[in-house]
Amino acid sequence: MAMLLSGLVPVVRSAIEATTHYRGRNLWFSFLGVRLVTLYISHMPWSQLDLDFHCNITENEFCRRVCFDLHFDMSFMMLWNFTFVVFALSVLLMEIFTYQLRHSLWKGHIRQVGPVEINGNISLTEVQEHPLASNDMMINFHKQRSMLAIYMLCVLARAVIEGSFLAVLLLWHLPKVDSSPILCSTLSCPGPYQCLVRASTEKRMSIYTMASISGSIVVFSFFFMIYSCCHYVVLG
């Protein structure tokens, strides 16, 4: 988790210092930051999940661990981290395309202007004074329809990622900590044993917290796509 937090520093720096902007850019980076903070807070109740899993077994630690692995059949936190990384990639993907657009426009202007000779020396003063070299650029989606299509695909990808994550949280992870007794019986540990997860309320609250943020991103993504299509395509 510390690596994710440290890895966000250059991302935030690039968001602040970038010279190419588009509508909604700062908001998506804000969602990315809120998503990471929520993920960090939600990790806390799950940090000692193995110790929080108890069964009515006093003499056999092996069977308790077997029941634990049977109930928690996938690492929750690894899945949460992976989903965040995929969401972050969908945000950074748009940054790659905006950089490529600015680079293409810059190269096109250099070809158009070309080097200027002053006293036999080559000067690029005209090129360097062009707005693309020194000023921030706002992408005009009215003209850059291909960039608009890429942007909408990125937003759609975010909605799909967060919608899938929301479904996993509510339909798969939440029932694992619903405070009901867990019956465990396997070939190696026939039992049956009764198990429970301590601090289940805190764990459920962490899931609700992540679910609320993911749900907000899904709703905002769809409204943003509808607005963008109406504003840039329908109204032109």
Describe the structure.
The chain is mostly helical. Helices cover 68% and strands 9% of the residues. The protein is built from 9 helices and 7 strands; from the N terminus they run αβααβααββααβαββα. The strands form 3 sheets. A 3-stranded antiparallel beta sheet has the order 2-7-6. Strands 1-5 form a two-stranded parallel ribbon. The longest helix has 38 residues, at 76-113. The relative contact order is 0.15. Residues 120-130 have low confidence and may be disordered.
Largest sheet properties: 3 strands, antiparallel
**What does the average pLDDT come to?**
80
Total domains, how many? 1
- Count all strands and give the number: 7
How many H/I helices? Answer: 9
Global Rg: 26 Å
- The assigned structural class equals mainly alpha
Summary of the model, kept short:
It comes from Latimeria chalumnae. This is Connexin N-terminal domain-containing protein. The chain is mainly alpha-helical.
Task: Give a topology summary.
Blueprint: H1 2-17, E1 20-21, H2 25-43, H3 49-52, E2 53-55, H4 61-71, H5 76-113, E3 116-118, E4 121-123, H6 125-128, H7 131-134, E5 137-138, H8 145-173, E6 182-184, E7 193-197, H9 200-234
Helix pairs in contact: 1-2, 2-5, 2-9, 5-8, 8-9
Output the keywords.
about 10% strand, de novo design (two linked rop proteins), two-stranded parallel ribbon, 9 helices, mainly alpha, three-stranded antiparallel β-sheet
